[in-house]
Specification:
Elements: H1 2-23, H2 27-48, H3 56-75
Length: about 80
């Protein structure tokens, strides 16, 4: 039932915003708006379905872990919580 509500809210947002952007010929803004609305709607539906969406902090940790390891080996640093 929540998915229907999410879709209804997304449709209402489209009805309110898209005609104004269309008349003003704001094509880039309309494309970005559609992308962000679809992304937000998809994430909301995924959360409602308990889809197990990935945590962005895991991605950041994976990106910065090699930099941390390089700093540890280069400068002889160690983490504070390692004692």
């Amino acid at each position: 039932m929540a998915i229907v509500g999410i879709a209804a809210i997304a449709a209402c947002i489209c009805v309110l915003e898209v005609p104004r952007m269309w008349r003003s010929r704001q094509w880039k803004e309309l494309g970005l708006f559609g992308f962000l609305l679809a992304l937000g709607t998809g994430i909301s539906v995924g959360i409602d379905l308990d889809a197990g969406l990935p945590n962005p902090m895991d991605w950041l940790a994976a990106i910065f872990r090699p930099i941390e390891n390089l700093a540890e080996t280069t400068f002889g640093l160690r983490r504070v919580n390692e004692g």
